[in-house]
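Page 37, continued from 36.
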């Protein structure tokens, strides 16, 4: 037997799918014109759809939290964008690795990674998120977009992503490895060979991806930093605050990348990112310092941040935090006097430090613009600004002229390419701010020196200081933290930071009273003062306070703040730390501190716990004694406990035995036999029912007599039955009426037999020996058929109930086999024990049921669990040879129904592991059982096919519900997977039956085809597998299998056609109800084939599947195309117009393109065999495929035309229409054009007239001269035929719609098709008298063209009239209907009035139109129509004035001037 997933697995059967010539038939209807896509394209579509879905949801979000009580808007937006992060960071690389490992000969890993990154990240995620971050009108969505860049930067550096920094092996780093860290499971994976060229290429690609992410990250922050992003001050400040936070997060990664580029001698690459980073820094500084100048108001409290309330406060705090990061990055990390070069070298070796920090030592020298000196200057000015914010509590007032100049420079948006340095604009903002504070600081130091106070006195007159803005508590606290952190992280700033904090601690906000000060409330003043003291204490505790000489300043500040004791201890700790650093190992050991646990014992607590334990044991012992053995207690498992319990209860034994339930006295004395029976039966003999004779004295029915001892030394034994028992048995067998006592005997005999049968069955199922189990099941199978009508005992009653329920369910589902299954249900009631045996292994036995040893393996376990059912079937088959032959078939139906019911129960209760185990075991063993069954029936195969009905569990698994837990969702998905596996096993059963049992081949194929066509229920994946089974496995097997498949598909097609006929009136009524709704009508040929109501949609889906299946067979056997055309053109389905087609006819015409394309490819007259490689990425294959289609189109067109009768002409025309290429890049081949002409010639009517509809599909490929000769045929046809032919002529000439083309070589006709302009010209020049067309029809077709203003719009008509008038000037005569067309154009197209008046009419006068009486009459009428239209700015009076004097008089005589 083959494995379950061999023939239907798309990967294991790739060779079958590759040779599937009707692949287009099996594909989705939305892609009928494309060759099957490659796995990479399918994966890209899936990834892009997931991203687009999330981004669309994000774009359409209102920007307000749906449930503010549970989550804020930022968390909600982040959860919406989470799929974008997963796809862009992890799912994309994982998909690339999976594709490369699955198709190694077709796709390389680098190709997959590059393609997925380009399509998903570079072209979709990054641009869309950048656009949202820059221009979204909702601040919250801008913030979410900004945060997404930070998240992507973090996620891309994880294992297996694009910027992986966790994998050590170079060939496995990034998206090319297993996606785990080197310390995980991937450590055991050997790294593949890796060339230097490949390593360099991957390194370059990684750098490009990193640069792209960082550049877009910086670009997303810059627009949010510009002032006036939102008209609301609060919203503008909120958006700017998020922009500053994004800039803070992006600064260090950008600087590290620039350092890498400079180190790699890529100065241009570093500069490309450096310029936007400088713009970003400028934007942040501008929001902090230039708001006053931009607002045009000198009032300190009128700037935008102050007006923004909390949002403005948060913005200022974010800007201060950004200043801290700038100082960190633009300063040196080395200690004063240390060798910076050596430290920088060590730092470059330790990548962990570089990943978390950046300093000027990390920046390699050599770049002409990005230098350490320029960046250090910015850092020093930023640090001075921070010190000023802490010391003054705000920003010292800056000269307004300097602010205006800086604001103007910033607003110009210079890109640093105009000759100025990229640092200029930043310094223009920072310098005035820093110098304003330094000026105040210098004045205060000078005043302190003049006051004669202590050394370093600092006297600051705050009343004379003007501030541009003052700090509230939050930004003030961040400023203090920044100065303190810079002192510890950057030792070069320690002294200045300590001095700044000490001075502010001596002169804190609020003065001596601690009252409110400026923007600080009293509580805020208290918090700031405490913060300053703690910062000074922290710095004093640092050893640098001693080495830098700042300890005295810090201690003095703390002393004045009343913290002398704390200052002394901090100073002592710093000195001890410094001594330890300078001292040797002995000094450090002496300073070590050890801790010991308190090991004192708590005697009281221990004694209390012991007493509680003793009391609990005493209570248990007393309870045991009180219960007594007479109450039927259960002895403990431990022998010691059991003996103790017995000894304790000896004195509690009752003096008498407890009474039994029955009123009758026991007949058996309590002797040794009584005790032995109790031991052997495990106590069952103690609970016998005295009312049952078989329990009471059943052993007395047989009597044994011993004879004499024979010569062999053995004693002869004689067994005789009790005469009363024998008499009752004979009467019961002969059907004689029994007495009351005998009836009771007969009933009790059945009960005894049922219990005995149950004991045999249970013993065999629980036996550990395989031999004993097999013998017991063999005995049970024989007894089950013997004991007809005996009801099962309680032990196996559930199995019988399940068998009956399963048969009833099968009867309700399979209406086609209703009579057969009704007999099976009656059989299960007549033979209860047989049906119980069939379902015995399919019901749970309960947790107490003992199990045999399963160490023998899965195969032996499967055989053991199915032996009973197989023995029942074998007994039924043997008995059916002589007696009732239907019993075997009924028995088989009950068995299969029970298996199906077990699987259905598992689907309904996915969390029940026992039912799931039973269903999986039964389904996996069913193929083996049916393969070993003596014979099969069509009903049983249909029941097997019902295993494919898993649509309900599939919908439950795919449905999303917020009420589902993770465990429930996981259980549903596991149940769905198990159900699909069972359905696959059912399909394999049908395959095996079709291959191995000739008698049942037709029934098996019928069932498989019914599943593939959707008549038998099944989920979409299972129907697809059934379709592949029928087309790729069964059909190619042999000719008999192919004939059976065609026969079954024809039956399904007839059923679908009949279904369409039966439901036609219902669908028409539903469509009429739907048409009354106010909805926009749909026009066009494709719209006519779409369903108009829900009822029609359901019916169309029901009919479509058998149509597609039969069309797939038509590709293999073109001779059966006539069958589907005959059914599709039934008169009962034709309503008279395409709008009224039945659903069957719609299904046929909708899928006709797939049939024509596949048939033309399959049956092309090509001298070589050609295979289409589905996974190819070269246009060469597509070109050859097109040639192949062209070669086969002509052949298949002639074959189908020969098969189609006169009534089937509509579908033949549809077939020909779909044979023509549907793209603008290719024209119908000459072979196809000749074939259509031949078909037209063969299908002449009785009068010898040809039907132009047969050549309409190929007119776009015919030469224009041929079309001119064929034009009368199209004109003679109906309006629909005429308009359709014109549309097909010009369908590939869109660019020439307004042009009348001239032949490149007048001697050779090469132009194909006919543009709209050319159609109008040739229609006017048509010699209708010569070709026998009435003049009225000639004029009507021109009118039809003018009325179709979508095709023949004003520009097309103008081009045609212009061409004909030009030829008129060259000497050609005007067509008969020319002036009539101009008059109609005047009535329809007012836009051409000016052109007609000023160009066309004078041109006709110039060509002497008045020489032709008919044309002159039309000219005068047209001129008259436009003469009095001056109110609209247009008049033909100028053209009239150009007439010769004689013609002018003639005109005025007929139309006098008013």
């Amino acid at each position: 037997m083959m494995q379950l997933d061999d023939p239907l697995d798309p990967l294991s059967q790739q060779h079958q799918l590759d040779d599937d010539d009707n692949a287009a038939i099996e594909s989705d209807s939305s892609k009928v014109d494309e060759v099957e896509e490659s796995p990479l394209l399918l994966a890209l579509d899936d990834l892009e759809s997931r991203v687009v879905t999330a981004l669309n949801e994000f774009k359409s979000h209102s920007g307000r939290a749906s449930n503010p009580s549970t989550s804020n808007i930022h968390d909600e937006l982040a959860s919406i964008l989470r799929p974008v992060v997963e796809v862009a960071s992890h799912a994309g690389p994982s998909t690339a690795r999976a594709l490369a490992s699955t198709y190694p000969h077709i796709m390389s890993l680098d190709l997959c990674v590059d393609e997925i990154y380009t399509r998903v990240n570079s072209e979709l995620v990054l641009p869309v998120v950048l656009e949202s971050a820059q221009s979204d009108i909702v601040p919250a969505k801008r913030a979410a977009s900004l945060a997404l860049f930070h998240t992507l930067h973090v996620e891309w550096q994880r294992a297996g992503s694009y910027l992986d920094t966790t994998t050590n092996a170079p060939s496995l780093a990034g998206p090319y490895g297993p996606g785990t860290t080197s310390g995980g499971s991937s450590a055991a994976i050997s790294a593949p060979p890796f060339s230097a060229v490949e390593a360099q290429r991957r390194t370059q690609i990684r750098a490009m991806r990193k640069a792209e992410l960082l550049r877009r990250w910086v670009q997303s922050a810059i627009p949010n930093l510009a002032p006036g992003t939102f008209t609301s001050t609060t919203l503008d400040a909120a958006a700017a605050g998020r922009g500053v936070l994004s800039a803070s997060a992006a600064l260090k990664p950008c600087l590290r990348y620039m350092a890498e580029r400079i180190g790699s001698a890529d100065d241009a690459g570093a500069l490309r990112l450096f310029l936007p980073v400088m713009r970003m820094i400028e934007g942040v500084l501008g929001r902090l310092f230039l708001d006053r100048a931009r607002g045009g108001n000198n009032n300190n409290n009128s700037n935008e941040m102050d007006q923004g309330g909390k949002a403005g406060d948060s913005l200022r705090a974010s800007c201060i935090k950004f200043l801290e990061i700038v100082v960190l990055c633009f300063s040196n990390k080395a200690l004063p006097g240390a060798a910076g070069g050596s430290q920088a070298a060590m730092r470059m070796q330790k990548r962990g430090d570089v990943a978390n920090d950046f300093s000027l030592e990390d920046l390699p020298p050599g770049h002409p613009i990005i230098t350490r000196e320029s960046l250090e200057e910015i850092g020093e000015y930023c640090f001075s600004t921070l010190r000023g914010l802490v010391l003054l509590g705000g920003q010292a007032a800056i000269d307004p002229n300097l602010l205006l100049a800086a604001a103007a420079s910033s607003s110009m948006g210079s890109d640093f390419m105009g000759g100025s340095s990229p640092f200029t604009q930043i310094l223009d903002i920072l310098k005035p701010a820093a110098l304003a504070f330094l000026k105040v600081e210098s004045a205060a130091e000078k005043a302190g020196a003049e006051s004669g106070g202590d050394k370093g006195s600092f006297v600051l007159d705050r009343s004379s200081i003007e501030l541009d803005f003052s700090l509230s508590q939050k930004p003030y606290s961040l400023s203090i933290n920044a100065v303190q952190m810079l002192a510890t992280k950057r030792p070069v700033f320690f002294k200045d930071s300590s001095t700044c904090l000490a001075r502010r601690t001596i002169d804190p906000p609020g003065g001596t009273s601690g009252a409110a000060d400026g923007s600080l409330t009293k509580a805020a003043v208290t918090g700031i003062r405490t913060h300053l003291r703690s910062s000074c204490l922290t710095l004093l505790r640092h050893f640098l306070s001693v080495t830098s000489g700042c300890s005295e300043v810090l201690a003095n500040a703390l002393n004045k703040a009343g913290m002398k004791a704390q200052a002394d201890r901090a100073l002592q700790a710093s000195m001890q730390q410094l001594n330890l650093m300078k001292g040797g190992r002995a000094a450090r050991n002496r300073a070590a501190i050890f801790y010991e646990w308190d090991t004192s014992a708590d005697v009281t607590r221990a004694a209390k716990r012991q007493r509680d334990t003793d009391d609990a044991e005493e209570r248990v012992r007393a309870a045991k004694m009180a219960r007594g053995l007479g109450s039927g207690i259960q002895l403990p498992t431990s022998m010691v406990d059991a003996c103790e319990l017995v000894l304790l209860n000896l004195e509690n034994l009752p003096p008498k035995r407890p009474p039994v339930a029955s009123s009758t006295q026991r007949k058996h004395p309590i002797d040794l036999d009584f005790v032995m029976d109790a031991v052997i039966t495990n106590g069952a003999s103690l609970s016998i029912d005295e009312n049952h004779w078989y329990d009471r004295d059943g052993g007395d029915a047989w009597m044994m007599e011993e004879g004499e001892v024979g010569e062999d030394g053995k004693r002869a034994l004689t067994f005789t039955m009790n005469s009363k028992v024998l008499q009752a048995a004979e009467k019961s067998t002969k059907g004689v009426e029994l007495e009351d006592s005998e009836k009771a005997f007969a009933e009790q005999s059945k009960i005894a037999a049922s219990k005995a049968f149950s004991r045999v069955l249970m013993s065999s199922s629980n036996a550990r020996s395989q031999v004993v189990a097999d013998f017991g099941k063999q005995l049970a199978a024989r007894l089950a058929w013997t004991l007809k009508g005996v009801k099962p005992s309680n032990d196996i009653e559930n199995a019988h109930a399940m068998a009956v329920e399963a048969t009833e369910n099968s009867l309700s589902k399979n209406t086609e086999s209703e009579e057969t299954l009704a007999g099976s249900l009656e059989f299960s009631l007549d033979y209860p024990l047989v049906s119980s045996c069939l379902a015995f292994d399919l019901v749970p036995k309960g947790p107490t049921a003992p199990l045999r040893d399963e160490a023998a393996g899965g195969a032996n376990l499967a055989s053991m669990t199915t032996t009973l059912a197989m023995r029942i079937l074998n007994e039924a088959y043997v008995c059916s040879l002589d007696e009732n032959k239907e019993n075997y078939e009924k028995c088989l139906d009950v068995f299969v129904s029970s298996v199906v019911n077990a699987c259905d129960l598992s689907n309904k209760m996915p969390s029940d592991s026992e039912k799931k185990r039973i269903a999986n075991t039964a389904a996996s063993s069913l193929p083996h059982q049916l393969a070993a069954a003596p014979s099969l029936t069509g009903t049983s195969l249909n029941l097997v096919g019902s295993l494919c009905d898993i649509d309900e569990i599939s919908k439950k698994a795919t449905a999303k519900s917020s009420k589902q837990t993770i465990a429930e969702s996981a259980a549903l998905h596991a149940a769905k997977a198990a159900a699909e596996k069972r359905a696959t096993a059912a399909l394999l059963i049908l395959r095996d039956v079709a291959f191995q049992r000739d008698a049942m081949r037709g029934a098996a194929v019928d069932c498989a085809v019914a599943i593939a066509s959707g008549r038998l229920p099944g989920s979409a994946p299972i129907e697809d597998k059934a379709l592949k089974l029928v087309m790729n496995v069964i059909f190619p097997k042999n000719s008999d299998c192919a004939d059976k498949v065609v026969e079954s598909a024809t039956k399904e097609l007839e059923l679908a056609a009949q279904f369409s006929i039966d439901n036609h009136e219902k669908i028409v009524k539903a469509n009429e109800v739907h048409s009354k709704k106010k909805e926009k009508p749909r026009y066009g040929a494709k719209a006519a084939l779409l369903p108009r109501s829900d009822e029609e949609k359901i019916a169309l889906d029901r009919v479509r599947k058998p149509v597609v299946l039969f069309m797939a067979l038509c590709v293999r056997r073109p001779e059966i195309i006539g069958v589907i055309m005959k059914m599709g053109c039934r008169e009962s389905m034709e309503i008279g117009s395409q709008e009224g087609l039945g659903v069957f006819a719609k299904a046929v015409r909708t899928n006709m393109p797939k049939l024509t394309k596949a048939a033309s490819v399959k049956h092309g007259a090509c001298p070589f065999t050609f295979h289409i490689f589905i996974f190819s990425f070269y246009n060469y294959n597509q070109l050859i495929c097109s040639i192949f289609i062209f070669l086969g189109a002509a052949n298949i067109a002639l074959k189908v035309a020969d098969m189609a009768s006169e009534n089937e002409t509509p579908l033949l025309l549809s077939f020909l229409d779909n044979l023509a290429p549907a793209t603008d890049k290719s024209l119908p081949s000459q072979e196809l054009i000749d074939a259509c002409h031949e078909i037209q010639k063969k299908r002449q009517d009785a009068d010898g007239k040809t039907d132009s509809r047969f050549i309409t599909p190929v007119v776009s490929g015919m030469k224009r001269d041929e079309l001119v000769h064929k034009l009368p045929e199209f004109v003679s046809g109906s309006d629909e035929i005429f308009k359709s032919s014109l549309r097909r002529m010009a369908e590939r000439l869109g660019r020439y719609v307004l042009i009348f083309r001239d032949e490149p070589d007048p001697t050779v006709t090469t132009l194909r098709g006919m543009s709209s302009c050319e159609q109008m010209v040739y229609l006017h020049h048509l010699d209708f008298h010569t070709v026998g067309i009435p003049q009225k029809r000639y004029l009507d077709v021109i009118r039809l063209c003018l009325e179709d203003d979508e095709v023949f719009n004003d520009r097309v008509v103008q081009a045609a009239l212009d061409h004909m008038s030009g030829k008129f000037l060259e000497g050609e005569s005007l067509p008969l209907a020319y002036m009539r067309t101009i008059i109609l154009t005047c009535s329809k197209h007012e836009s051409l009035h000016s052109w007609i008046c000023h160009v066309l009419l004078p041109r006709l006068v110039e060509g002497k139109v008045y020489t032709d009486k008919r044309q002159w009459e039309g000219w005068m009428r047209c001129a008259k129509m436009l003469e009095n239209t001056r109110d609209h700015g247009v008049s033909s009076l100028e053209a009239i004035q150009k007439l010769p004097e004689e013609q002018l008089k003639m005109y005025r005589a007929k139309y006098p001037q008013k």
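Residues 702 and 721 are 4 Å apart (CA to CA). Flag for discussion at group meeting. The mean pLDDT is 76.
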